[in-house]
# Entry
Amino acid sequence: MSEQQKNFPEFYVTAPQPCPYLSGRLERKLFTHLTRDKSSTVIDNLLKGGFRRSQNIAYMPYCEGCQACISVRVVVDGFEASRSMRRIQDKNGDVVSRRIPAKPTPDQYALFRSYVDARHSDGGMADMTVLDYAMMVEDSAVETFLTEYRVKPENALESDPETWPLIAVALCDHLSDGISMVYSFFDPDADSRSLGTYMILEHIAHARRLGLPYLYLGYWIEGSRKMKYKTRFQPQEHLGPNGWLLQSNTEA
# Structure
């Protein structure tokens, strides 16, 4: 096998199965394996070009007669938090974020289980064991990191920050032009904090500090209530046949 063949991804297509986002439709995925012997440039271009990563798999929708899934990314320099977003930031003024290596911990898994059991008990992650969680975090051929969000107690000066209550975690990849949010989870009993929105806002700010132009949010699906929140983060670009294009505000 030539070096060029070794580095070029081999693609596969999954069998049709019910779409988890749009009722009555079937989904298929185009996917390839990400291994450390693959060119980092090739992997980076895949993840910037509409593929999403799950462990060592890069995938994208490959559905017959449907193009509802659209890759979106926030334009960091143009983003300004809305009034409601600033209120969410204020509500979480006692939350401290900490960037750490992609290593799983027992308290992360406990929070993950609480989140999945409360919000996605009928989803594909419902049966994930502690080993499955560890693989989700560690099995990566790119530069991956975790952000932990902990509540700072009143007696913070007398305690170890690692013992503060963990209320949210985000798993992300560093790309050459941005940060890709792979998966996030949070305390399901902390609805008033709007932690999903808060984590996106915090990562936009992190990307800005790093001088990175984009925050990748995965797929937006018109007609799916689960994905509607992504339209709130403007300006954003959508990936289409002619590449990434700036969109007008798509929020309903």
About this structure: The chain is about 25% helix and 30% strand. The two ends are 52 Å apart (CA to CA). The CA atoms of residues 116 and 126 lie 6 Å apart.
